[in-house]
Automatic annotation (TrEMBL), chain A:
Keyword Repressor (UniProt): no
InterPro entries: ABC_transp_permease
The entry's keywords: Cell membrane, Membrane, Sugar transport, Transmembrane, Transmembrane helix, Transport
Species of origin: Povalibacter uvarum
Principal location listed in the UniProt entry: membrane
Lipid bilayer topology: Multi-pass membrane protein
Pfam families in the cross-refs: BPD_transp_2
GO MF term (any one): transmembrane transporter activity
PANTHER family in alphabetical order: ABC TRANSPORTER PERMEASE PROTEIN, SUGAR ABC TRANSPORTER INTEGRAL MEMBRANE PROTEIN-RELATED
UniProt-annotated location(s): Cell inner membrane
GO cellular component: plasma membrane
TM region positions: 6-28, 35-56, 62-84, 91-113, 143-160, 190-208, 214-234, 241-257, 269-286
Protein name: Simple sugar transport system permease protein
UniProtKB/TrEMBL annotation, chain B:
Membrane spanning residue stretches: none
Protein name: Simple sugar transport system ATP-binding protein
Keyword Electron transport: no
PANTHER family: CARBOHYDRATE TRANSPORT ATP-BINDING PROTEIN MG119-RELATED (PTHR43790), GUANOSINE IMPORT ATP-BINDING PROTEIN NUPO (PTHR43790:SF4)
Keyword presence, ATP-binding: yes
Domain of life the protein comes from: Bacteria
InterPro entries: AAA+_ATPase, ABC_carbohydrate_import_ATPase, ABC_transporter-like_ATP-bd, ABC_transporter-like_CS, P-loop_NTPase
Domain ABC transporter per the UniProt entry, residue ranges: 7-238, 254-499
Keywords, sorted A to Z: ATP-binding, Nucleotide-binding, Sugar transport, Transport
Molecular function (Gene Ontology), one example: ATP binding
Signal peptide: none
Length: 308, 501
C-alpha cells in the first residue's frame, strides 16, 4: 500500500464522517436543551432531496444547501409544534417524523432519480494545500468539511464558554428551575430543535451532493440513527462526537477497501462493522457513570408544562 | 413608621381547578421587618409566595410595592423590583458550578472571573463562605442553601422570601442562618419567612400573618404569643400531643452488624460498617441531614439492595443480607420509603390495588388469583381506621394529598402487623394533624410489641416518639443512646459529624 492510497483512505474517511458530524452536533445542541428528536433520519433525507432538487433545477449548490437547511428546520419546527406546544410524546413524535421524512423524500424525489449532479468542488487552501502529503490529506476538501470543523469549534465554544450556552444546558438539566428564574424555556427549546433540524438537513445535503452525488431513495442508510447513538455514547460532548464520527467514517472506508481486495469475510458482515465498531468503542469509553450523570441532560425527552 | 410598607397585598385570590389556594389574602411587610407567614401544608403559603415572586399570576387582588401598584409578571420582574427568593426545594442546577448557577440568576453579563471574586467577597462578608468553582451536586444541603442565599444577596434585594429554610438544617446551621437574617434586617432588608415551626418564628420574627385554608386567620406579634395560641390560629383547634409511655424492650428483632454498602448512585453516600439493633417494643430514631446515607440504609434494610454478607442484616434472628425484599417481608418486615408516589405507592393505581401490592399475604390473593372484594375491603377499612381523606378506595393514589396518602401507606403497613417496621421520613410534607396521626400509629405499633426504626430529619418528631436515638453522618452511624441522654445540642453537633467512632 503506497502513500497515495493511504491519503485516499484518509480523505474518504473525512468525507464519510462529515455528514455525521454536521448532524450530530446539531442533535447534541438540541438534546442538551432537553429535547429528544428521533426524526434525524427523516430530516436528513428531506435535506438530501431538497439540496439535490434545488441544486439541479437552479444550478446553484449554495441555494441547494440553504434550501436543505430550511427544509430540515421546517421539519424540526413541525416536531417542535407537536412536542413543545401540543405536548405530545417526544419519542413517538420523533419516530413518526423519521418515517414521514423517508416517505416524503421518496415522493418528492421521484423526478430526480437517475439525474446527474456536479459534485461540490474541493476548495484547496492556498499554500497549505501544496505541502507534500499533508496538503492532499488535510487541505483539499470541499467547504462543508471545513464547515463541519468550524461547527465543532462553534458548538464547543457556545456550550461551555457562552452565557447563552449555559442557559441552554441549564434548561436541559432542570427546565422547571430555569422557568422559575425567568428563562423562556419553550422558546429556547424551539430554537435548539430548529438548529438540530437545520444541521441534519445540511448533513443530508452532503450525502446527495458530495459523498455520492445523486439522489437515491433512502440514501442516508441509517446514518440518522447512528447520529442519535453517537450523541448518546459520546455522553453529549462535542469532542467525543467528533472522534466517534471519524471512527465510524474510518471503519466504513476500510471495510469498503477490504471488500474491494476480496477479503474472505461475508460482505454483509463487513458492512455491519462501522456500526458495530463505533458503538463498541463509545460504550467502552463512556462507562463512567459520573460522566454520564454530569453530561446527560436530566430532562431529556420529558415534556415541560410552564404552569404545571 | 414609614408612610408606605415595602410590600402590601390586598385581596389576593388564586383559584386552581380543585382548590381555592388563596382567598382574599391581605399582607403587609415593612422595611427591615422580619415577617412570618405561618400555616400548615396546603394553607396556601407557597402559592402566595409564587404570586409575589411572579411565578404565577393572581386571579384577583392588588400588589403594592413601596406604595406603588405593581404587576409582577415574571420572576425577572420580581428581581428587578428587588425581590429575592430562596426556595424550599432548591432551585439549583446540580451539574453546574456555584458560579454558573449564580450567573444564571443574575441578569447582568459579568465576566466569570469577576463574578467568582464577587461571590467570595459577599459570601464571606455574611459569614456564608462558599467556593464559587465547586459543582453543586457535591455540596451538602446546608451548603446549597448558602448558595441560594448568596445568589439572592448578590442582587441586593429589598425583600427576601425564605420558604421553609430550616427544614433541612442542623440546629447549629439554623443559628448561623438566623444571625445572617438578623444582620440583613438591620440593613433595612425586609424578610418574609415562611414556616410552620412555631419556636423559630417566635424567636426570629417581628410580626406574623397566619394562613389557614387559603385565608388569613390572624395576624400576631409572635414574641407575645405562645406556641399554643399560634398553633390554634394555624390549625383552628387544639392540638393533641403524642404520648410515649416508657416500657421494657424485648428481644432483638432487627440487627445490623458491620453493614457496609457502596452506593450505586455516583452522587450517593456509601455505608461504612454500621452496627445497630432494634428490639421488640421500642422505637429507635436515626437523625441526620438527608443525603448522609439515609436512602442507602433504607434500601439495605428493606432488601431493595442486597448486601454480600448475609449476616450483616438479620431480621428476627435470621441472616437476611442476601434475601430480596419479598423474602424479607415474609420474615415480618414492613417498610415505608420516603418517596410516597413511585415507591410507596403506584401513582396511577387505585388505593385498593395499591393495598394489594404489599398486603397480598393478608388473604387478598387465593390460588394465585386476586380477590378484588377483599382488596377493596382492606383498603376501605384502612381509609376509615386512619382518617384518610379520599374519594373512595377506587381513587388513584396520586389524587390524594401527601399527608393523606402517607396515612394510607403507613396504615397499610401497620395493619399487616409487622414484627419489624422501618419508616423513612414519615411526616415529610405532611400537615400537623396527619403527622400526629402517623406518629400515634407508630407508637401504637411499638406498644403492641413491634420493633420500629424511624429515619427522620425532623428532630421534634424524633424526640416525641423515640426510645433511643442515633445519628447518621456520611454513611457512618453514631452509637445509640436513650433519648433522655441526648440533649439537642449534642445531637446537633453529632449531625455535623462530631461523634467518636
Amino acid at each position: 500500500m503506497n502513500i497515495d492510497t493511504l491519503i485516499l483512505i484518509f480523505a474518504s474517511t473525512v468525507a464519510a464522517a462529515t455528514p455525521l458530524i454536521l448532524a450530530a452536533l446539531g442533535v447534541l445542541v438540541n438534546e442538551r436543551a432537553g429535547v429528544l428528536n428521533l426524526g434525524v433520519e427523516g430530516m436528513m433525507l428531506v435535506g438530501a432531496v431538497t439540496a439535490f432538487g434545488v441544486g439541479v433545477t437552479s444550478g446553484s449548490l449554495f441555494l441547494g444547501y440553504v434550501a436543505a437547511m430550511s427544509a430540515g428546520a421546517a421539519m424540526a419546527l413541525l416536531f417542535g409544534l407537536l412536542t413543545l406546544t401540543l405536548q405530545t410524546n417526544q419519542v413517538a413524535t420523533g419516530l413518526a417524523l423519521a418515517l414521514f421524512g423517508v416517505g416524503l423524500s421518496a415522493f418528492v424525489g421521484q423526478p430526480f432519480v437517475g439525474l446527474p449532479i456536479e459534485r461540490v468542488p474541493a476548495v484547496p487552501i492556498p499554500l497549505l494545500a501544496d505541502i507534500p502529503v499533508l496538503g492532499p490529506a488535510l487541505f483539499r476538501y470541499d467547504l462543508l468539511v471545513y464547515l463541519s470543523i468550524a461547527l465543532y469549534a462553534a458548538v464547543s465554544w457556545f456550550l461551555y464558554r457562552s452565557a447563552a450556552g449555559l442557559r441552554l444546558r441549564a434548561i436541559g438539566e432542570a427546565p422547571g428551575v430555569a422557568h422559575s428564574l425567568g428563562y423562556p424555556v419553550v422558546r429556547i427549546r424551539y430554537l435548539a430543535v430548529m438548529f438540530g433540524g437545520a444541521t441534519s438537513g445540511l448533513a443530508g445535503a452532503y450525502l446527495s451532493t458530495a459523498l455520492t452525488p445523486m439522489w437515491v431513495e433512502g440514501m442516508s442508510a441509517g446514518r440518522g440513527w447512528i447520529v442519535l447513538a453517537l450523541v448518546v455514547f459520546a455522553t453529549w460532548r462535542p469532542l467525543r462526537v467528533l472522534l466517534g464520527a471519524y471512527l465510524f467514517g474510518g471503519v466504513t472506508v476500510l471495510q469498503l477497501h477490504a471488500q474491494g481486495l476480496g477479503v474472505d469475510v461475508p460482505s454483509e458482515f463487513l458492512s455491519m462493522l462501522p456500526y458495530l465498531a463505533t458503538i463498541v468503542v463509545l460504550v467502552l469509553i463512556c462507562r463512567n457513570p459520573k460522566t454520564i450523570l454530569l453530561n446527560q441532560p436530566a430532562s431529556l425527552g420529558r415534556s415541560f408544562h410552564p404552569d404545571g | 413608621m414609614q408612610p408606605h410598607p415595602r410590600l402590601a397585598l390586598h385581596g389576593i385570590t388564586k383559584r386552581y381547578p380543585a382548590v381555592l389556594a388563596n382567598d382574599h389574602v391581605d399582607l403587609r411587610v415593612g422595611a427591615g421587618e422580619i415577617h412570618a407567614l405561618l400555616g400548615e401544608n396546603g394553607a396556601g403559603k407557597s402559592t402566595l409566595m409564587k404570586i409575589v415572586y411572579g411565578v404565577t399570576q393572581p386571579d384577583a387582588g392588588r400588589i403594592e410595592w413601596e406604595g406603588r401598584p405593581v404587576t409582577i409578571r415574571s420572576p425577572a420582574e420580581a428581581r428587578q423590583l428587588g425581590i429575592g427568593m430562596v426556595f424550599q426545594h432548591f432551585s439549583l442546577f446540580e451539574t453546574l458550578t456555584v458560579a454558573e448557577n449564580i450567573s444564571l440568576a443574575l441578569d447582568s453579563r459579568e465576566p466569570p472571573a469577576q463574578l467568582a471574586s464577587r461571590i467570595r467577597e459577599v459570601s464571606e462578608s455574611y459569614g456564608l463562605p462558599i467556593d464559587p468553582l465547586r459543582l453543586v451536586h457535591s455540596m451538602s444541603v446546608g451548603e446549597r442553601q448558602r448558595v441560594e442565599i448568596v445568589r439572592c444577596l448578590l442582587q441586593s434585594p429589598q425583600l427576601l422570601i425564605m420558604d421553609e429554610p430550616t427544614s433541612v438544617l442542623t440546629p447549629q446551621a439554623v443559628r448561623m442562618l438566623f444571625d445572617t437574617l438578623r444582620r440583613l434586617a438591620s440593613q433595612n432588608v425586609s424578610i418574609l419567612y415562611i414556616s410552620h415551626k412555631l419556636d423559630e418564628v417566635r424567636e426570629l420574627c417581628d410580626t406574623a400573618t397566619v394562613l389557614r385554608g387559603g385565608r388569613v386567620s390572624g395576624t400576631a406579634t409572635p414574641r407575645a404569643e405562645s406556641n399554643e395560641s399560634l398553633a390554634r390560629m394555624m390549625v383552628g383547634g387544639d392540638l393533641r400531643e403524642c404520648h410515649l409511655t416508657p416500657r421494657e424492650a424485648g428481644e432483638t428483632r432487627l440487627e445490623l452488624r458491620g453493614l457496609t454498602l457502596a452506593s450505586t448512585d455516583p452522587f450517593g453516600t456509601s455505608l461504612h460498617s454500621i452496627d445497630l439493633n432494634v428490639r421488640a417494643g421500642e422505637i429507635v430514631g436515626i437523625a441526620g441531614v438527608s443525603g448522609n446515607g439515609q436512602s442507602e440504609l433504607l434500601a439495605a434494610i428493606s432488601g431493595e439492595r442486597r448486601v454480600g454478607n448475609a449476616a450483616s442484616v438479620s431480621i428476627c434472628g435470621s441472616a437476611s443480607g442476601t434475601l430480596d425484599a419479598a423474602q424479607r417481608r415474609r420474615l415480618g418486615l414492613s417498610f415505608v420509603p420516603e418517596e410516597r408516589l413511585g415507591r410507596g405507592a403506584v401513582p396511577e393505581m387505585s388505593l385498593a390495588d395499591n393495598a394489594l401490592l404489599t398486603a397480598h399475604s393478608a388473604g387478598l390473593v387465593r390460588n394465585g388469583l386476586v380477590r378484588s372484594d377483599a382488596a377493596r375491603e382492606f383498603a376501605r377499612s384502612t381509609i376509615t381506621a386512619f382518617d384518610v381523606k379520599a374519594g373512595s378506595e377506587l381513587s388513584p393514589a396520586n389524587s390524594l394529598s401527601g399527608g393523606n396518602l402517607q396515612k394510607f401507606i403507613v396504615g397499610r403497613e401497620v395493619r399487616l402487623k409487622p414484627k419489624v417496621m422501618v419508616v423513612s421520613q414519615p411526616t415529610w410534607g405532611v400537615d400537623v394533624g396527619a403527622a400526629l396521626r402517623i406518629r400515634q400509629a407508630l407508637i401504637d405499633l411499638r406498644d403492641s410489641g413491634a420493633a420500629v426504626l424511624v429515619i427522620s430529619e425532623e428532630l421534634d418528631e424524633l424526640y416525641a416518639i423515640c426510645d433511643r436515638l442515633a445519628v447518621l453522618f456520611r454513611g457512618k452511624l453514631s452509637s445509640v443512646h436513650p433519648t433522655s441522654q441526648m440533649p439537642v445540642e449534642k445531637l446537633g453537633s453529632w449531625m455535623a459529624g462530631e461523634f467518636a467512632q
